[in-house]
Specification:
The protein is α+β, with helices and mostly antiparallel strands. It is built from nine helices and 20 strands. The protein has helices at about 1-25, 145-155, 160-165, 185-190, 195-210, 215-220, 240-260, 285-295, 410; strands spanning about 40-45, 60-70, 75-80, 85-95, 100, 105-110, 125-130, 130-140, 160, 265-270, 270-275, 305, 310, 325-330, 335-345, 360, 375-380, 390, 400-405, 420. The protein has a five-stranded antiparallel beta sheet with strand order 1-2-8-4-5, covered by helices on one side. The protein is globular. This is DUF1254 domain-containing protein. InterPro entries: DUF1214, DUF1214_C_sf, DUF1254, DUF1254_sf. It comes from Mediterraneibacter faecis.
Length: about 425
């Protein structure tokens, strides 16, 4: 039975983590920094820096505007304004699949798929198969001086229940609620759950967040241990030292997920990224759980790629004890409106403190090109004489993430990804 229980855990983990994340993010009576009640905007107002420790590998290209939805009563109408920049709204269902990406100005009714009703003219319906949903708007910006322009975009975004949108009355969102017990780190909360707590929460969530038709085989399997919509988990199906076996299972699951994830790893030169079906997983349950654990809310590949590199061209692990050249023959290939960046992170997956507060280089950095049009970026702890093409990497171990938004997948097949070579001597003058 433990094998079935393990399958059930992997299957249900993203749903339980989404719920825990929503509970934490909406644990407030009114909108505050990084929290907002259900069905209300949570607008980020600043870029992450080296002091930011809330989420690993933070993005310093975009400002987020998020909403956690309860769609059980009626649709929510999201008005997206016209912008002069990359601004896309990813809508995820309760199982972490991408239900839609809103990339044009307009009014959208984010609705439960089973909702029956009529929409006003000019409102586009966005079906979500679960009553729990999450949207992440990503708005690109060019440094701190560009923040007022992003705030203006955020200020024009509107969100209200469909009934209020139709009535035309001024909408005042209701107050939320706060409970001290819901101040937690979501992934830690879920990983600390005992079997009864975890599976009964999963069973409860599956009632309003229905599994898909494709899950039929899995549901039949895990029903044998009383796991499924509305069921009551019976811990007597577990044998041996339940607490110890549960702890061992969770440790082994994480190792298995990492191994399973390698099947979906793609190469871009020396860089690696997670490929399809990321963000729309269907029955790839282990991959879905891995991505939820490592980076909840990942985009599908047509929206963004996240290649990572940890070694130089000689296969040696990157370290701030040495200095390197990051060499671009040409920049990442993106479609119209897309952009790219390369961000440095320490071994702890956080941004690296440095004297010029520079954490990434991107297509807005004004990098100086070589005579042949290629570009060399210096990766080092100490500043070179000319800092325009410098990406500080601190003194310890580090790695780089490239972000390619709206990638040109066809062009990337023949594109030469940037290489990293050590500079000799190691100290940059």
């Amino acid at each position: 039975m433990w094998e079935t229980v393990e399958d059930a855990y992997v299957y249900a983990f993203p749903l339980v983590l989404m719920d825990a994340t929503e509970t934490s993010a909406t644990n407030t009576e009114e909108v505050v920094t990084k929290k907002a009640p259900v069905n209300q905007f949570m607008h980020s107002v600043a870029l992450a820096d080296a002091q930011f420790r809330t989420v690993v590998t933070p993005n310093v290209d975009t400002i987020y505007s998020q909403v956690w939805y309860d769609l059980s009563e009626e649709p929510m109408v999201y008005e997206l304004p016209k912008t002069d920049r990359f601004c896309k709204v990813q809508v995820l269902d309760g199982w972490t699949n991408t239900a839609a990406v809103l990339d044009k100005a307009g009014a959208y009714a984010i609705a439960l798929s089973t909702w029956e009703g009529k929409l006003p003219e000019g409102v586009t319906r966005i079906d979500v198969p679960t009553s729990m949903a999450w949207s992440i708007a990503r708005i690109v910006l060019s440094g701190e001086e560009d923040l007022p322009n992003v705030y203006a975009i955020q200020g024009k975004m509107k969100l209200m229940p469909l009934s209020d949108y139709i009535s035309g009355d001024t909408y005042e969102p209701p107050r939320g609620s706060y409970s001290e017990e819901n101040d937690y780190i979501p992934v830690d909360k879920v990983l600390s759950m005992d079997p009864i707590t975890f599976f009964n929460k999963a069973n409860e969530l599956m009632v309003k967040n229905s599994p898909t038709a494709a899950d039929k085989e899995m549901l039949e399997k895990i029903a044998a241990v009383n796991i499924g919509p509305g069921m009551e988990f019976d811990i007597s199906v577990l044998t041996g030292d339940v607490a110890e076996n549960w702890k061992t299972m969770l440790t082994e699951i994480q190792l298995k997920l990492i191994k399973e994830g390698q099947k979906f790893s793609k190469k871009l030169g020396q860089w690696d990224y997670f490929g399809e079906p990321i963000g729309d997983f269907n029955t790839e349950y282990a991959y879905r759980a891995l991505v939820a654990l490592a980076g909840l809310g990942a985009n599908t590949v047509e929206v963004a790629l996240y290649p990572k590199i940890e070694q130089d061209a000689d296969g040696n692990t990157l370290t701030g004890e040495k200095s390197y050249i990051l060499h671009f023959e040409s920049y990442p290939q993106v479609l119209e409106g897309g952009f790219w960046s390369v961000t440095a992170y320490g071994d702890d997956d956080f941004l690296i403190d440095n004297p010029i507060d520079r954490y990434c280089i991107n297509d807005r950095s004004g990098l100086q090109a070589n005579d042949d049009g290629s570009v060399d970026v210096i990766l080092s702890e100490d500043a070179p004489q000319n800092t325009i093409n410098w990406l500080p990497v601190g003194a310890g171990g580090f790695h780089l993430f490239m972000r390619i938004y709206t990638p040109d997948m066809d062009a990337l097949e023949t594109w030469m990804a940037p290489t990293i070579t050590e500079i000799y001597p190691s100290h940059v003058n």
